[in-house]
Design goal:
The protein has about 475 residues and is of the alpha/beta class. It is about 30% helix and about 15% strand.
């Protein structure tokens, strides 16, 4: 038998032209065609030890669904994905597969790994196009009721898994749209709202009830979910939505935003459909975004689409240390974003009307590694310079909203305000309360939040069936 010849590189993802996409909010990546997907799936060498699965927080049977694509069994691949992932179209678009499943791909030792994320997106989209449905019946009703606080990736995952187990599940969402960070934090050109809604509709078919405009800690407290509404367990998945600002002059000037506010205005108020929707977002001509993560990339690329003549990304380290996905950085540069490495703001400067007129920065150099292993940026004395800007967006991290911890005094949190929960179960030291995702870890990835939701669902199921079981109150946190 002739030896199978393996294509060394991934099949490229079709993209919108950079000059066109920089001025619209249509999706940048266009997705694989059927033939491209099959060609890419045939690159998989079907390893028996499946190292890619070990890198997947939700434990997708990657080898199986890719072989099904190679065999053109797209409906089978769709069902294989849904066995483990309630948000495949979302994950196929925004999850950092290059640092998770793909980094463990055996093919990637000598060649480029299989494009697992692109194939996941293809299967999810193709399944929706052909109207494939998940017809797996849920377990018989157990009579137990669970409240899920927050409809982001952790909350959606725990809700879906518990509903499949037969439990009654209600999601409480503070905003007027379900989806959490998937709808307010990620721009339309990277994750269309219709895709998120499609996945959420799948949860509704499982019997999950979603109540929007319910701010837990205000509409009801966590304790009232138990005492007044009769829930037997509560999962907290409220994410990390409290913005972080540096302690520099000018931070309160008109035209200074957190990335959270900037993206939320664009996403939930439909600024991405301007001028059909004229929302209260300042469309700066010269915009500076501070940060080097995916949120910073989302914000600076959004500013271009809102009409900026110059979109600057200011990052205090080098490209090597930048935490954003490589493809997002490349897309930003293709679209005209001007990236300024080894620089940090020291002040935001005002005009006579207290509006932003410029930002003062200082040049940095890299010193010794910090606690995270990245080399620490050190200011270069006397290297200050000014950039003329009218809008400044800070994307330098987010913290935990204090509302739940302030209204639930017996819920332990760490010094940053994140809920303390067991890594393996999501259990907190408050009986019946579980937590997962960014509210526990701080800002992380969609798929890691989903992994936490999956673990918590298993633990909640065990707790509901035997609430006296030992081991569901962590003692070492």
């Amino acid at each position: 038998m002739a030896k199978k010849i393996i294509q060394k590189t991934k099949n490229p993802m079709p993209l919108q032209d950079p000059h066109e996409r920089a001025h619209n909010f249509d999706e940048v990546a266009l997705g694989y065609t059927v033939d491209l997907a099959v060609l890419e799936a045939k690159r998989c060498i079907q390893c028996k030890n499946e190292p890619c699965v070990a890198g997947c927080p939700v434990e997708i049977d990657i080898r199986k669904f890719i072989q099904q694509v190679a065999d053109r069994n797209f409906e089978g691949a769709f069902h294989t994905l849904l066995e483990r992932n309630v948000l495949p179209a979302v994950c196929g678009r925004v999850c950092p597969q290059e640092d998770q499943c793909e980094v463990k791909c055996t093919l990637g030792i000598k060649n480029e790994p299989v494009a697992i994320g692109r194939l996941e997106r293809f299967v999810a989209d193709h399944g929706a196009l052909l109207k494939f449905t998940d017809d797996t019946p849920p377990a018989p009703p157990t009579g137990h009721k669970v409240a899920v606080v927050g409809s982001g990736p952790a909350g959606l995952t725990v809700a879906a898994d518990l509903a499949k187990m037969g439990h009654g599940v209600t999601i409480f969402e503070a905003l007027h749209k379900a989806g959490g960070v998937l709808v307010y934090g990620i721009p339309e050109f990277r994750l269309p709202k219709a895709i998120v809604q499609r996945e959420i509709d799948g949860l509704k078919h499982l019997g999950v009830e979603i109540k929007v405009n319910h701010v837990i800690g205000q509409t009801f407290t966590v304790d009232e979910l138990f005492t007044e509404l009769g829930y037997e367990a509560v999962f907290i998945g409220t994410g990390a939505g409290l913005p972080t600002f540096p302690k520099i002059p000018g931070i309160n000037l008109i035209g200074v935003y957190s990335a959270n506010e900037y993206l939320t205005r664009s996403n939930l108020m439909k600024a991405y459909q301007f001028p059909i929707f004229d929302t209260p977002t300042i469309r700066g001509r010269n915009v500076a975004v501070i940060g080097g993560g995916n949120t910073a990339m989302d914000a600076v690329r959004t500013s271009l689409r809102l009409g900026a003549d110059n979109a600057y990304l200011i990052y205090r380290r080098t490209r090597k240390e930048m935490p954003a996905r490589v493809e997002e950085v490349e897309h930003a540069e293709e679209e005209g974003v001007q990236i300024m490495m080894l620089a940090a703001p020291t002040a935001v400067l005002a005009d006579e009307k207290s509006r932003v007129r410029a930002m003062r920065c200082i040049k940095m150099e890299l010193g010794e590694p910090d606690a995270s292993g990245r080399r620490s940026p050190v200011p270069q004395k006397g290297s200050e310079f000014d950039i003329e800007v009218d809008t400044v967006v800070f994307a330098i991290g987010q913290g935990a909203n204090p509302l739940i911890r302030n209204t639930t005094p017996d819920l332990p949190v760490n010094k940053w305000g994140n809920v303390l929960a067991d890594d393996d179960t999501g259990a907190t030291q408050k009986a019946g309360v579980f937590a997962g995702g960014d509210i526990v870890t701080g800002g992380a990835t969609v798929i890691s939040a989903m992994g936490a939701g999956r673990k918590a669902a298993r633990a909640i199921d065990t707790y509901l069936r035997n609430p006296s079981v030992d081991g569901y109150s962590p003692t070492d946190i």
